[in-house]
Amino acid sequence: MAVKKEDLVKFILDRNKAQSKDFCSPGAQLGRRLYRAQHPSEIIALKCMDGRLNLSIMTNTPPGIIKPYRNIGGKFDLGWPFFGRLILDDVEYSVSKGRPTVVLSTYHFSKGDTHRGCAGHGYDTGAARKGAFRLAEQFKSAFGGNHVAVFPMVVAIETDEGGLVFHGEGKETFDVANHADASADNIHSQLRHMYPEVPDNIIDDLLPLVAGNQKYVKAIRASKRPVVEMEHKEQIIAVGRGFDWLHLPNRALMIGPYDPDWENAVATAGKIILGNMKAKRVPEKDGALLLVLAPFRTIGADAGVAVEKAEYLAREAEKVLKEQTPTIMKKLRILVGTVDMNTRNFYQLMKK
Questions:
Q1: From residue 297, how far is each of 34, 203, 340, 344 by CA, in Å?
Q2: Closest CA to 76 of 110, 43, 107
Q3: Cα separation values, 119 from 50, 109, 218, 244, 271, Å
Q4: pTM, to two decimals
């Protein structure tokens, strides 16, 4: 049953409360610690804002393990000041803990219909793939291509079944959907062959992602989900950072404030949601939600600055939507807040 317009804000707040409680539970905390002890590589995923791309769900990985960065079309540039600084902080943190960093430079496509692919690249899978490879090369240039601390890899996401496709150093690929019953030894051998310069411990840390994705693909196939479920069905525009607790496939378009022109992605998101309503993929009566978040880790100045960031992002996002997609405003509610990354608890700042 669709969420009614007047319940969208309550739905998000209730969702956060439940997810935060689960994140903070003893079992979840111990599970994350055990996972990191067994698979210490830090994993960064650079993804499109598309709501269908939730790698934690697609790989059956505990929330908080894969660190996502989102932008339209999965387009990023290490030269962007804020983005470059965040990535450098991530890498320096990993090195300080004695951990390598795996960077998944992703693009997505649909094997069933080109127009279920990436709108951010004009549904041009070739352009999306080139962009992902270009970004991986940029990481190699910035952090060294000698495979010491940072390991960029190009990974495609097929959205019809949710299968991952790993691109090797050459033209070889490993399509999880085509190897849904492959053994762990076979997967290790395939990845070892594709990434000859990558240390064994990195390959070992990729295995749980592949195994989890095998289970996901088989579950999707068994569900025989209709084509409409493969299409865009988002009704939430999520702007900012700290959304991994949302953990909902195909409900939100997520936009990080990394690109100096991030407002353009907000306008595109507004058009996508209006298109979803027009195509009746989501009921128009349910409305839409602009959800804005800024994360913090410590109380005091860090939390205070997060408030200012959230309010700024909300003002700018609302301004863009009013100017470029004015028809959405009658259907839109706005929820702004900060999130404590230690607990994933959401603190509401204002409500409209």
A1: 22, 31, 6, 10
A2: 107
A3: 9, 10, 27, 23, 11
A4: 0.89
Q: What is the pLDDT along the chain (352 residues), one digit of tens a residue?
A: 454 444 888 999 999 999 999 999 999 999 999 999 999 999 999 999 877 888 999 999 988 899 999 998 899 999 999 999 999 999 999 999 999 999 999 999 988 888 787 877 888 899 999 999 999 999 999 998 777 899 999 999 998 899 999 999 878 999 999 999 999 999 999 999 999 989 999 999 999 999 999 999 999 999 887 765 667 778 999 999 999 888 777 788 889 999 999 999 999 999 989 988 888 888 888 889 999 999 999 999 999 999 999 999 999 999 999 999 999 999 999 999 999 999 999 999 975 4
Distance CA 200, CA 27 (A): 29
Domains of the chain: 39-227 (3.40.1050), 232-351 (3.30.1330.140)
DSSP 72: G
φ, ψ dihedrals at 202, nearest 5° = -70, -45
Q: How many CB atoms lie within 10 A of CB 217?
A: 22
In the numeric block, the tokens 């997060």 are attached to 306
Are β-strands 236-240 and 288-296 bridged in parallel, bridged antiparallel, or unpaired?
parallel
DSSP state of 230: G
- DSSP-assigned letters across all residues of 224-249: T--GGGGS----EEEEES--TTT--T
